[in-house]
Structures are given as structure tokens and as C-alpha cells.
Amino acid sequence: MGFFDFVKGIGKKNTASPVEQKPAVQSTSEPAVQNEPSAQEVANKLLGLLQGLDLGIKQLVVEYNATTDLATLKGEAPSQAAKEKAVLAVGNVDHVARVDDQLTVATPEPESKFYTVKSGDNLSKIAKEVYGDANKYQQIFEANKPLLKDPNEIFPGQVLRIP
Length: 163
Prior knowledge:
It is built from four helices and six strands. Helix 3 (123-131) packs across helix 4. By secondary structure, the chain is α+β, with helices and mostly antiparallel strands. Residues 35-107 form the BON domain. Keywords: Cytoplasm.
């Protein structure tokens, strides 16, 4: 899949708590920036988020570059759907503007299409636009589980899988 661009700053706040984290060491040469997590903290939270989704990705590694807001994903996904869900889960988080997808897939399949949610969108409206049938919204919802918990909770700028 390569690189994916996302809208930074509008994604869900990443509150996943992976492994217990040690308090950050403050440098005396730089002033502390309040409310801005370190690159390692963001990477750890993204890793915790993906582990919590239980997508079955083996040897998962998440790296984050705070200068470029780039998250890099490495490992082996069991399916194309799991790979795409991992990329979207990370990209739809605050602080991430771009995802470098270096995940491999155990069984390669064709890639899904993607849709960026606009203001005023809902899954029925998207289904009508994509499939010509608003009642197929459930197909989009199912393709984005566990990223979506409720078909009514999407936000502008969010990127969804369209099977």
C-alpha cells in the first residue's frame, strides 16, 4: 500500500494504554512542551491501539516521527483487511498525518477502496454514493469493525474502507 496521507489533528485522541510507561525525563536544555507527547509515547500508544484491536498482526512494530508526523507500521498481517484496518486505525488518530505501510500480508488480496468522510456524511449517504443503495451502509460498517463501534459515530476527515 505504501504511504497514506491523513488529516492531522482531527482524528480521535489516542488514549490507548499499552505497556506501563515510565515518566518522561525532562531535558534541561529545552523547555518542556505541555500536552505534547514524545515520539516514543505516541508510538507506544499506537502500538497499544493496534494490539487492542486484535488484528492478528505478527511481529508488529510501530515507529513514529514527530517532526514529520509519520507513523511506520511493520509486521505480517493475516489478511488484506487486517492490514488496511491497521493503517486506518493509526491514520485516524490525532498526531498522525501520514502512515508508511510496510506491512506484508500472509495471503495477498486486492486492496479495498477508501473514502474520506466529509461534513454531513453518514454511512447511509456514503453507501448511496458508492453503491447506489443507502441500505448497504451495514456493509461499510462491517468492513470497518472494530475501528467503528457505532455506525452513527463517524467524523469529517476520517478514512473508511469501502469493500
